[in-house]
Amino acid sequence: MLHKAFKKFTPKMYKLLNINSVLIVPLISNDKAIGIIDISREKPFRNSDLERFKAISDVIITAIEKKIAEDRLKNTTLESNVILETGIDGMRVIDKDFNVLKINKQFCKISGLSKSKNLAKKCYESFSGEHCNKPTCPVKRLQKGLSYFERESEKVRTDGKVVPCLITVLPLMNADGKIIGVVENFKDITELKKAEEALLLKNYVFDTALSANSITDNKDIIKECNDAFLHIWGYQNKSEVIGKPISSFIQDKKEAITTITALNKSGKWEGYFTAIRKDGSTFYAQSLSTTIHDSNGKLIGYQSSIIDTTKKIKAEIMLNTEKETAQKYLDIAGVMIIILDKGGKVSLINKKGCEILGYSKDDIIGKDWFDNFLPEEIRPEIKKVSRKIFSGEIEPAEYHENPVLTRSGKERIISWHNTVLKDDDGKIIAILSSGNDITEKKKSREKLQHLNTILRTIRNVNQLIIEEKDKKKLIKSVCRSFTKDRGYHSAWIALIDDKGKLTEAAESGVGKDFKVLMERINKGKFTACWEKAMTSSGIIINKNPKKDCSDCPLTESYGNRGAMTVRLSHDKKTYGILSVSTPLEYIENKEDKDLFEEIAGDIAFALYSLGLEEKRIKSEEEIKNSYQKLQKTLKGTIDTLASIVEIRDPYTAGHQKRVASLAISISKELDLDKDKIEAIGTAAIIHDIGKINIPASILARPGKISSLEYDMIKTHPQLGYEMVKRIEFPWPIAKIILHHHERLDGSGYPEGLKGKDIVLAAKIIAVADTVEAMSSHRPYRPALGIDKALEEIKKGSGKLYDRKVVEACVKIITKKGFKF
C-alpha cells in the first residue's frame, strides 16, 4: 500500500517542486544490483552529467565492495586472502610499523614491483606518495582513531612513473579490537582522470569557443549551445534558444533542409548560409557541422560550429570589386603586366599581355610561365634566376630583355621591369613584372647600329684611301675594314687590268676557298655573279648564293647570309669586283644598298686617285731636290685633296676655293706675315676635306635633311682632322681644319671651344666660310646675297666671330671691292 501511495504521490511532488528531470543510476557489482542513485533537478541532464554520475556510481560501488571486504576480513583470514587474490583493485596489508604483510596481483601490477620485492620493503619505499612519513599518512591517522579513510593520491613507482589512485584505508584489528595494521585498497584511476580532463577540456572549449557552438538532436531541435551562439544571434539566455529547431535560425528553410540531407549523407557539411537574428536582421554565417552517433552507430544528433562571416563576405565583395577595378586599370595599360607565384605559375596577366602572347586570359592563368611562354633554350637560366629571387639570394633585375614565345610560335622581345611582392612577414610570395614589346624597336635599333657600323666602315675605308698609296695593301686593308667592325661577315676584292686579266685580289672572312675562286677567274671561268656584275651598273643582290650561284666555290662560306656584288668603276673605267656577305634582313634595305654603292664608288675613286698619286710621286721625284719643287709637291697634295672633294661634291670644292680667297684677303688686311697667310690659304682650300666621308646623297640633297643626317655632317671637322693630321705640313693645318666651326661663345663644334682657345687662322676661316656659304647657291636653297652675309657676321661680331676679323672682312668687301 505504501509503495502504491508513494508511486502515486511522486509525480505530484515533482510537479510541486518544479522537477523536470530525473536521473536514476543503478549500482551493479559483479552483475548484481546492490542499489540505485536517484537524482532529480529542474534543468535537463547533459551528457557530461551522465559521465560524472557514472564515475560517482563507480566510487560508491567500490566503497560498498570495500565495506563487504572489511567485514569479511574481520571474520576470517581465509576469506580475506580470497578477497586479496580476486579483487579487481590493488590491495595491500600493512602492520603498524609500515611493513608490507600481504599484497595481491593487481597491486603488483599497479606498483610495478613483484610480490617478493614489495614484501621486502616498507610501504613508503615500494609505492610512495605525497603523504608518506607525514602526519597525514593514512596509517598514522587510523592509529589515532579514524575508522575509515578515503582519498585520491598520486603514488610514485620505483621507476618514476606517477599513478593516480583512489585509496581506501580500513583498520586491521585483533580479537581485542586493537589496531594492528591497515588494509589499503588502490583503484588505478588513470583512465578516469584522463576522461575527466578530456571532458572538462571539451566542455571548456565548447563553452568558451569564439565560434557559436550548438548541439541538436536528430529531429533538428537545439539541445545545447554556448554563449557565443547567444551573442551572434542576439539572445540573452539559453532558454530562448534550447528546444527550438535550428532551422528557425536560418533564413532559407529549403537551404536548411538541403544542408541536413547533405549532412546525413556524408556525416559532415561545411558551407555558408544567411542567418536570422532575434531582432529580424540577417547576417552571413559559415558552418562546420558533423553528425553524432551512439555506441551502436545510431544517429542521435548534430554538432555545429558557426561563425559570423558578414565582415569577411563584405570584405571579399569589396576586394573583388577593387580587384575588378584594378584589372580594368591593368587592362588599359600599354605594357604587359604579369604576376608569377613561387611555383612559376601565372596568377595575373593583363589584356596587353594576352594580346602579345596571342592567348586568352583563361589559357594563361595557372599555367607554368617558363615551360609555356619562354623559348626552350633560355628556360633553365630564367628558372634558376627565379628560384634565387624567391630564396632571397639575389635581387630581381630592375631591367632586362628576353624573348617570349607566342601562340603562333614566333618570338617577341620584351623589356622587363621587375619587383617582388611580400607578405606581412616580409616573405617573398610573387614576382611582379611589367614588360614592353620592343621587338620592332629592337629591330630598328639593330638596323641603326648596323648602318652606323657601315658608316664607320666607310670612314675607315676613306681614311685608308687618304693614307694608303699601294693598291695591294689598300684592297687588303679595305677587306679587313669591312669585316673588322662586323659591318659585313666577309668581303673580297678582285682587280683586273684593261684587258680583263686578274692583277690583284684580297679577302677577309672568306677562307681557303677564295684561292680556288681566283684560280678559276684567272683561267677565264667566271661565276654567275661575276658576269652579272661586270655587265651591270648597279648592285647584284643574291639572297640564296647556294641556289643562285651554285658554281661559286664560296657559297658554303656564306652560310645563311646573302651576297652583294658590284663592279668597281670610275670615269668609265672598270677596276675590278667588290663582293660582301651580309645578313638577309638588311640585304634589301635601301640605306644598305645606297651605302654599299657609295663605298664601292669611293674605292673605285681611290683606285683612280692612286693612279693620280703615282703620277704625282713621279713628278715629285723629278723635282725633289728643289724647294720650289717641294712647294709644288705640297700644293699638289693640297690640290689632290681638294680635287677629291671636287669630284665627289662640286659645291663643296668651289666653296673651299672661294673661302680660301676671302680668308687670304682678310689675313692680308690684318697684316699677318706671309707664312701665316699661306697656312691660312692652305687650310681654307681643304677645310671641308672631311666631307668626303659624308654620303654625297646627303650633301647634295635639295630638300631638308634630318637631325641624324645633320649630326653626321657636323662630324666633318673631326674627320678632316683625322685625314690630314699625319701629313707633314709646315703649319698646323689639321688643327685649323678641326676648329673652323668653333665659335667665341662655345656654341660651335666639335669641341665647343671658346675665345682664346680658338686659333686665329680658324677664326678667319670661320668668318670667310660663313660669308661665302650665305652668298652662294646651295642645293637646298638659293644664294642669300653678300649683304645678308655681312649682316650676319656683324650681328655675331664679338659673340660668335672675332671682332677684328669681322671688321677686316667688311672693309675689304665694302671699301676695297673684294669679290669672289
In helices, the fraction of residues equals 40-55%
Mean pLDDT, to the nearest integer, reads: 82
Main sheet record: 6 strands, antiparallel
Shape: elongated
Protein model, in words:
- The protein has 33 helices and 23 strands.
- The longest helix has 33 residues.
- The chain is an alpha+beta fold and 820 residues long.
- The model has no long low-confidence stretch (mean pLDDT 82).
- The chain starts with a helix and ends in a 6-residue tail after the last helix.
- The strands form five sheets. Strands 4-3-8-7-6-5 form a six-stranded antiparallel sheet. The chain has a five-stranded antiparallel sheet with strand order 10-9-13-12-11, with helices on both faces.
- Helix 24 crosses helix 25.
- The radius of gyration is 56 Å and the shape is elongated.
Considering the chains and any ligands shown, give keywords for the structure.
820 residues, single chain
Note the topology.
Blueprint: H1 2-16, E1 21-29, E2 32-41, H2 47-75, H3 77-86, E3 90-95, E4 100-103, H4 105-111, H5 115-119, H6 123-126, E5 128-129, H7 138-143, E6 149-156, E7 162-173, E8 179-188, H8 190-208, E9 212-217, E10 222-225, H9 227-233, H10 253-266, E11 268-276, E12 282-293, E13 299-308, H11 310-331, E14 336-341, E15 346-349, H12 351-357, H13 361-364, H14 369-373, H15 379-391, E16 400-405, E17 411-422, E18 428-437, H16 439-467, H17 471-484, E19 490-496, E20 502-508, H18 513-522, H19 528-534, E21 540-542, H20 545-548, H21 555-558, E22 562-570, E23 573-582, H22 584-587, H23 590-622, H24 627-648, H25 650-669, H26 674-685, H27 696-699, H28 707-713, H29 716-724, H30 733-739, H31 760-775, H32 786-795, H33 803-814
Antiparallel strand pairs: 1-2, 3-4, 3-8, 5-6, 6-7, 7-8, 9-10, 9-13, 11-12, 12-13, 14-15, 14-18, 16-17, 17-18, 19-20, 19-23, 21-22, 22-23
Helix pairs in contact: 2-3, 16-17, 16-23, 16-29, 23-24, 24-25, 25-26, 25-31, 25-33, 26-30, 26-31, 29-30, 30-31, 31-32
